[in-house]
Structures are given as C-alpha cells and as structure tokens.
C-alpha cells in the first residue's frame, strides 16, 4: 500500500469485511459479494493476508478469512474507505435482488444451448431489431435464465415490430414452415458412408450449411410466445369493447377462453396408432401388422431428440402401446372418428362464437393469427427434434475425428467448426470436467462454456444467478392453473423423459416438467397430469382435454417438491394439489430415511432453515435441515457439517452444492423439516441414507 491506497479489488474485498466485521468469509461468498472474477479474489486475499490485513484458518476442510485486528493500519484503511464513500459509515449494505429470472427447466445438449445466445445476439436483430446479450443455462439442474430487464425490452421490441409492420406476422408464420423444411433438408445425410471419406474441408462445408439453417430456424424458439401473449391481450381488449356495446361484459372470460383455446391439434400419430391397433384387433398379430408397427416406429422414433443425448424410441415402445389399445374394449374405429370429429367441431365452434358476438374483421384476423402461432409450438419442437436425429451421423463423425465421440453431447458446434477449420483439439481435461457439470454464460454478447461443477458454482456466485428468497415448507400444498377440470386422488410418478415411462402404472398421476407428443401412449394409463411449466394453451392442456384427464399446469416446482409414491389430491377445479403426509412417531431411536446426495457420516446440532434469517443461526457444528436448497444457502453451506433436505432430485441445487462442496447430505426425507427440531443432536449417516436422533 502506498499513501494509504490499495488496488481496487483489494479495496472491494476489505470493504466487504469492514461491513460485517465479526464474520468469517469463504472465497466464494466474496466472489458473489464483489462480482469480481475468482482469480482476482484469490490474488487479493493472498495479498491482504500477506500484508496482515486479514488472517485465515481452516474450518471443516475450507479456508475462511477474517479481519486481523492486530494490524494497527486497519483503522486508517477503514477511514479512507469511509471518505471514499465505500462504507457509508460502516453501515451494512444488504445484497440486491438477483437481476436474473428462471424461465424454465429443460434438459438440452451443450451444442443446442451454446447456439441459443448466439441466435439471441446475431439473428434476432435481423428479425425484430433487438438483441439479447445475457443468458445462463446450467447443465446440472437444467435451469434456463435470462435477465428480467432483457425480457421486458424483448417484449417491447416484439410488440413494436408487430404494430409497425402489418405483414410481419403472416410472413413470420409462413417463414417458420419454409425454414423448417430447409433445416430438415440440410440435416439429412443421404449416405452415411460418404462422411467418413470426406476430408475436413468438405465436411466443414456440409456442417456449416446445417448450422446456418439450424440457427436461422432457432429464432422460432425465442420470441413467438411473446407474439402469442401480445395477441391474447389485443383480443381481450377488443372483445371487451364489443361485449360492452352488447351489455355482455360478464361473458368476457368464457368467450375469451373459447377464442384462445387451441383449435388445431397434432392428431396424426394418435390416429395412426389407433388404426394399427384396429388392424391387430381384426387380423391378429401377423407379419403384416408387425410391418405396420415398424413403419410407425420409423416415422416417429426421433421424437425424444430435443436433446441430442437422447435415444430413439424403440420398436417395443410402440408395440407395447399398440398392444394395450388392441386389447382394450374401446371401439377403435369409433375412437378414430371421434378424434377427427372433435378436430372439426373445434373449428366450427370457433366460427360460431365469432359470428355470435358479431366480431370485427380485424378481431377475426387476430384470432386466426393466434391459433396459427399456438399450432407452431408443436411444429417447431418437432422440427428441432427431427433435425437433431437426422444430423447425428454428421456430429458423430466430427467428434470421432476429435477423439471425443463418446462425449459428443458435451461439445459445442463452434468447437466442432474450429476443429474442422483449424484442427483445434479440445483438451481431454476440459471434456472430463464437463462430465462433472457444465453451463453456458452469455454476458453482454460474449458467450462462454463453463466446465466443471466448482466453476459452475463460482459463476452462479459471481453473477448472483438464482438468488431467490427461502420459502418455508408450510403445508405441502402446490398451486397451478387448471387446464382440464376434475378432481382425483392417487399416487404420483415423476417422469423426466421417455426413459422413465416404465414407471407409470395404471391409475397413477403423471408429474413432469412438460409433456411432449411422445407422452401420448401414457395417457391411457394415468388418471391426471401435473406439470411444472405451461399455460392453458400448452401441450399438456391440449391433450388432457382430449383424453378428459384432470390437469394442472404451470406449478413451477411440482417435480421438485413431490416424490415418487406421494399420495395427492389433484383438484383441477381450484388448481390446488394437496400432498398427504405420513404420520411419524418419534421415540428412543428415531430414524429418518432418505437418499444419499453426498456420502459421509457426521454428528452435529440441527439448525432448521425456513427463512433467510435462519441462515445467521448456522455455526460450525450445524447440520442444516430444510425443505429444499436454493443458492441463498451458499453462505451457510460453506460452514456446515452436513445437510438434510426433504426434496430429492439429481438435478436440484441440493445435489449440485453438496457434491461440489463435499458436504455429507441426504435428500428425499419428505418429513425431516417437520420432525427435527432446532438443537436436536443427530447422527447423519449420508452413506446409508439415514438420520438418527440422539436422546
């Protein structure tokens, strides 16, 4: 230090310490507080300790830093920082709320997610004259995050484009189909054998053509939902004016629901499955019917490929589903006619509703546009999935040459292009770190892959991604939007993807992030549907109405809060899901069972975390107990001996943090936050998945 001045990063770090003088700080907490790069914080801490401003000690295998009051210059530094306005007379400054918001959870490959911010940056300005420079995707918990202000500006840009260009929406809809066909054409590999014979230069030409079409089509995953939202609001506003003139304002909600309910459903696969099942009913299991199943399988086996890591649907998948239909007592020919008739009926009912209220020509046009965009939801998802499946031979050939074929889902398209153009190899250590965990961060248009669980955690700290308030466990009630009315009680099964379809038994309630067309065969077994995502026009809402299944969508976190086997009441009249609790009796040797998140065995004292304030109660002897774990827990997790969580998921923050920080932990207890009390002395055996309360 010269003349009482420190380098800027050291000043920032000391400011944090002087705002909370008695606290011991872990390095990741300082990264989050200062928003500086990890290396900068490490260097600053080393320098400050070397100059005796800070001291450190190892606690629970981690190094914590605190102020060194033996240094007489510390008071002088504090005065300087106060004069500079950094300390504001040492008043503690609360952390600002995170600028990020989570849109959804969706598993996707690294290649796909790396393209998203590139499309936001490079393609969107050409379409709606607006770009998005910030983006976060966590390949461990599958969270997709944007900055709140970016989304507001995007919505405003979309509305401006729609208002200022009367031809935009119809050209945009037509363009989706044109670009979709082009993407499938550019993804198609006519002769797989030729790929191996191509040199890198020719392979790059083929790959670049695919990637250009891929990025151009991906725009339809970014903003059409905002166009839908805009037209729903416009329709609502115009409809209200019409009904006010007719003194029918009380009918607004009902009529709006009819106008904004999807008319055009994707029914082709459903009908084809019923037709094959009917052939089996008539002719039995013959070579001809087997060929029909093969043809159906070949036509739709690509459906799970929204992520390139998926596996194609198997022949048995379709055979089993068709066998169930063939053995059922449902008159299949009547069912086929019914589905087609309902499709036509929806179109007729929409026209009748518009005619009945004597709508204007432009309102009719708005409704038609909205219906077209709602149908595009399934279309664009199917195009991406089919393109992923079709281009697999291409990316497998490229990654084979890169010696990373077994990890092709962890390589970005840019890294593939760099190899073909420049021979640039991706180091094995980077690929191995990505196997632990990875993320994509875009900041002001600069896009980067984060490799390794620890590195992902540091970036989340630095950018305050996902810092939400802690919500107490309360009464185990989940709320969402009713999509198809009804009330059922049953056992839930959480299904993340098709690999877990076998979980579903007759009479179960399906719980998932969101449904896709490949979920349709399950609907003959389940009695209800619950989803994390979606609105009243999403895929789950559409198919639940077709099958008459009570359905609640848009819960946000049902897959995180509930566990396989939970007994629930699904009330799709009110949008409430009630989870029935099991009675627990405590005694001399009470054992609570759970599932291992990170192995280890520790004893300690319980601290229950039900709000942000409880984090301050954590000591070095604490084992924290909570309904779930959020990024807000990090300051406490650096100190604790162990962690017990009611929820369980290998994609949860609890799994990410306890594995990265190597904290003995269990999840899926369902009841620990209710049974255990503050101060209870417990033995946590995370290796066997149990907690013993010591009396």
> How would you describe the shape?
globular
Q: What Rg, in angstroms, do the CA atoms define?
A: 28 Å
- Give the strand order, joined by hyphens, for the main sheet: 9-16-15-11-12-13-14-10
Helix percentage range: 40-55%
Rounded average pLDDT: 85
Separation of termini?
Answer: 55 Å
Find the structural class using helix and strand composition.
Answer: alpha+beta
How many structural domains in the coordinates? Answer: 5
Pick out the low-confidence regions. 89-96, 582-587
Report the β-strand fraction as a percent range. 15-25%
Domain PEP-utilising enzyme mobile: 504-575, 621-689
Keywords: ATP-binding, Nucleotide-binding
Pfam families: PEP-utilizers (PF00391)
Family: Belongs to the PEP-utilizing enzyme family.
Question: How would you describe the overall organization of this protein?
Answer:
Residues 504-575, 621-689 form the PEP-utilising enzyme mobile domain. GO terms for molecular function: ATP binding; pyruvate, water dikinase activity. It comes from Candidatus Roizmanbacteria bacterium RIFCSPHIGHO2_12_FULL_39_8. The chain is of the alpha+beta class and 695 residues long. The chain has 5 domains: 8-83, Orthogonal Bundle (Arc Repressor Mutant, subunit A); 100-220 and 388-463, no CATH class; 268-340, no CATH class; 477-579, Phosphohistidine domain (Glucose Oxidase, domain 1, 3-Layer(bba) Sandwich); 591-693, 3-Layer(bba) Sandwich (Glucose Oxidase, domain 1). The chain contains 26 helices and 24 strands. The strands form 4 sheets. It has an 8-stranded mixed β-sheet. The two termini are 55 Å apart.
């Amino acid at each position: 230090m010269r003349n009482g001045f420190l380098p800027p990063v050291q000043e920032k770090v000391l400011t944090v310490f002087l705002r909370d003088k008695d606290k011991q700080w872990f390095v990741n907490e300082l990264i989050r507080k200062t928003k500086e790069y990890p290396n900068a914080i490490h260097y600053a801490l080393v320098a400050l300790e070397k100059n005796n401003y800070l001291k450190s000690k190892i606690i629970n295998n981690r190094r914590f830093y605190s102020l060194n009051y033996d240094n007489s210059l510390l008071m002088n530094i504090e005065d300087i920082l106060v004069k500079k306005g950094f300390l504001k007379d040492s008043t503690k400054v609360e952390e600002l709320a995170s600028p990020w918001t989570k849109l959804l959870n969706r598993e996707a490959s690294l290649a796909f997610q790396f393209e998203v911010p590139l499309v936001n940056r490079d393609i969107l300005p050409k379409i709606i004259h607006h770009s998005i420079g910030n983006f976060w995707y966590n390949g461990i918990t599958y969270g997709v995050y944007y900055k709140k202000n970016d989304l507001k500006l995007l919505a405003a840009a979309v509305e401006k484009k729609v208002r200022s260009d009367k031809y935009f929406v119809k050209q945009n809809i037509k363009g989706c189909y044109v670009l979709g066909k082009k993407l499938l054409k550019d993804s198609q590999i006519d002769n797989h054998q030729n790929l191996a014979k191509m040199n890198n230069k020719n392979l790059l030409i083929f790959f670049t053509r695919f990637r250009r079409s891929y990025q151009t089509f991906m725009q339809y995953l970014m903003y059409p939902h905002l166009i839908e939202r805009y037209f729903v609001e416009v329709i609502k506003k115009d409809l209200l004016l019409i009904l006010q003139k007719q003194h029918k304002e009380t009918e607004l909600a009902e009529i709006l629901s009819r106008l904004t309910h999807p008319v055009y459903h994707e029914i082709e696969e459903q009908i084809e499955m019923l037709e094959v099942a009917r052939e089996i009913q008539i002719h039995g299991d013959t070579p001809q019917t087997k060929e029909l199943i093969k043809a159906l399988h070949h036509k739709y086996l690509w459906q799970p490929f929204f992520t390139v890591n998926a596996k194609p649907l198997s022949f048995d998948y379709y055979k089993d589903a068709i066998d169930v239909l063939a053995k059922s007592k449902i008159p299949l020919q009547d069912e086929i006619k019914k589905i087609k008739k309902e499709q036509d009926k929806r179109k007729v009912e929409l026209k009748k509703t518009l005619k009945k209220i004597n709508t204007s020509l432009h309102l009719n046009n708005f409704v038609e546009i909205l219906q077209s965009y709602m149908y595009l939801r399934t279309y664009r998802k199917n195009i991406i999935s089919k393109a992923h499946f079709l281009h697999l031979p291409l990316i497998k050939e490229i990654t084979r040459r890169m010696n990373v074929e077994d990890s092709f889902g962890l390589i970005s398209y840019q890294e593939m292009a760099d190899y073909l153009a420049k021979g640039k190899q991706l180091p094995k250590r980077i690929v191995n770190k990505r196997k632990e965990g990875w993320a994509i961060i875009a900041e002001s248009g600069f896009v980067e892959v984060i490799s390794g669980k620890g590195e992902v955690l540091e970036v989340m700290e630095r950018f305050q991604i996902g810092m939400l308030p802690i919500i107490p466990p309360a009464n185990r009630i989940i709320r969402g939007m009713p999509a198809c009315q009804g009330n059922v009680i049953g056992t839930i099964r959480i299904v993340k993807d098709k690999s877990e379809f076998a979980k579903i038994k007759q009479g179960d309630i399906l719980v998932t992030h969101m449904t896709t067309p490949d979920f349709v065969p399950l609907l003959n077994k389940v009695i209800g549907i619950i989803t994390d995502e979606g609105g009243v026009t999403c895929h789950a809402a559409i198919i639940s109405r077709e099958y008459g299944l009570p359905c609640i969508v848009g819960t946000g976190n049902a897959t995180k809060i509930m566990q396989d086997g939970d007994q629930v009441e699904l009330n799709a009249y009110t949008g409430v899901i009630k989870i029935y609790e099991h009675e627990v009796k405590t005694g001399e040797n009470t054992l609570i069972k759970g599932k291992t998140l990170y192995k280890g065995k520790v004893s300690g004292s319980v601290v229950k975390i039900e709000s942000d304030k409880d984090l301050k109660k954590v000591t070095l002897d604490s084992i924290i107990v909570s309904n779930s774990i959020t990024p807000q827990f990090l300051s406490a997790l650096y100190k604790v001996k162990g962690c017990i969580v009611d929820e369980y998921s290998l994609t949860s923050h609890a799994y990410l943090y306890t594995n990265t920080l190597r904290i003995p932990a269990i999840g899926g207890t369902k009841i620990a936050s209710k049974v255990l009390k503050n101060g209870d002395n417990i033995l946590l055996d995370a290796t066997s998945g149990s907690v013993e309360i010591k009396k």
